[in-house]
């Protein structure tokens, strides 16, 4: 009996290996030949699944997004917001590799129209994922104005992107404990600001028109 190949699984395996190659060598040096060598196969085998290196990177990004969503979903339902969002930080080797790929990808986005479209889609997916986390973890979330929720959401994503970039650029300066401490502070500040904004709005409502 011929061996049955799960092509989707094989694509994921190649995409995962590509993540490691990009994290180790950078986008430009992550050639198809190098990815094939790391995967233990030929360049022709890679070409059977992906037409270009860009296709491999896009598949890798989709795989990373799926893995992040799985981690966020699998976290204990009783976990607090800090624990939940920490799943998106480069705290260990797996997440560091994922974040290094993101950084390499971002460097290519401005010059490539297709990658700009992919980046826009990924950003929308991140907004969806993190909004779900914030709604679950922030007390008072649903009582805040839509504009306040949007500002908090985008601030959290911007902060996590900043920590990601800083850690990839200088890993020794950003150990896991520092990343978590800074995220804790950011969440506390954003929650306090949003609650103060909501309290001010309620007080104005009680006061009525001048």
Description:
The chain starts with 6 loop residues before the first helix and ends with a helix. It has one domain: Tetracycline Repressor, domain 2 (Orthogonal Bundle). By secondary structure, it is mainly α. It is elongated and about 70 Å long. The mean pLDDT is 86. The protein has helices at residues 7-25, 32-39, 43-49, 53-74, 81-86, 93-108, 113-137, 146-169, 176-207.
Topology, pairings included?
Blueprint: H1 7-25, H2 32-39, H3 43-49, H4 53-74, H5 81-86, H6 93-108, H7 113-137, H8 146-169, H9 176-207
Helix pairs in contact: 1-2, 1-4, 1-6, 4-6, 4-7, 6-8, 7-8, 8-9
Features:
210 residues; mainly alpha; Tetracycline Repressor, domain 2
Report the sheet with the most strands, covering strand number, pairing sense and barrel closure. none
Total of domains: 1
What is the string of helix and strand elements?
HHHHHHHHH
Please compute the radius of gyration using only Cα atoms. Answer: 21 Å
List low-pLDDT spans: none
Shape: elongated
Overall CATH architecture? Orthogonal Bundle
So how many helices?
9
Mean pLDDT: 86
Provide the structure class.
mainly alpha
Distance between the termini: 84 Å
């Amino acid at each position: 009996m011929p061996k049955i190949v799960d092509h989707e699984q094989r694509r994921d395996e190649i995409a995962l290996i590509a993540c490691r190659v990009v994290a180790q060598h950078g986008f430009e040096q992550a050639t198809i030949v190098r990815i094939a060598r790391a995967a233990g196969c030929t360049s022709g085998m890679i070409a059977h699944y992906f037409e270009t290196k860009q296709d491999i990177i896009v598949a890798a990004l989709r795989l990373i997004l799926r893995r992040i969503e799985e981690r966020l979903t699998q976290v204990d339902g009783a976990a607090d917001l800090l624990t939940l969002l920490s799943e998106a930080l480069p705290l260990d080797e797996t997440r560091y590799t994922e974040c290094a790929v993101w950084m390499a990808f971002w460097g290519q986005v401005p010059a490539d129209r297709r990658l700009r479209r992919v980046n826009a889609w990924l950003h929308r997916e991140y907004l969806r994922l993190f909004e779900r986390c914030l709604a679950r973890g922030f007390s008072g979330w649903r009582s805040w104005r839509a504009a306040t929720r949007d500002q908090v959401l985008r601030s959290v994503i911007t902060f996590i992107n900043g920590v990601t970039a800083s850690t990839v650029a200088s890993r020794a300066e950003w150990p896991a404990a520092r990343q978590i401490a800074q995220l804790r502070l950011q969440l506390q500040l954003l929650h306090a600001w949003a609650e103060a904004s909501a309290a001010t709005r309620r007080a104005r409502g009680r006061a009525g028109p001048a």
